[in-house]
Amino acid sequence: MPDAASRMPAPDIVAAYRHRVFGLAMRLLGDREDAADVTQDVLVRLWQRGGAVPPEQQTAWVLTVTRNACLDVLRKRQTRETYTSPAHDAAEATSMTHGPDVLAEASDFRARIERALAGLSEPYRSIVLLREVEDHTYEDIATAVGLPLNTVKVYLHRGRQRLRDALRHRLPAEDLDLV
Hints:
By secondary structure, the chain is an all-alpha fold. 72% of the residues lie in helices and 0% in strands. The longest helix is centred in the middle third of the chain and has 23 residues, at 58-80.
């Protein structure tokens, strides 16, 4: 019988998921500190239990654990009633080679998209983020959110439509072609 140390994944597996976990947590939570905490928790779980997860299921397992950890943080926020919208540095949205007007427009556009995403209810928000932002497969998303594959496809379609509708109310007419 193998001991716990022989089941643990190599450090490179943890390193391979580090950025994915943080990126998803950041998008779901909108707070760098909370995302870093969730990332640490998920990577510790991966280190402890990842060796027991078959390699072909690791991505879905990591997505599931990350999403669930983020939902726990969001529930705690709601009970404390301290949730605020995420604020992002405009320098992250675009390159520093652009002028202040372009930076302001990009920051405003990004803020509108983030508000629209934040307005989506679960599981639409998670599904849209996992597919459109994180570019995960439908199968991995279905496993991560615990829904059948066809339901994920339907919810993705509905989530995209709800996002489009929300952005129609927030974007000038000339920007709607981008959505």
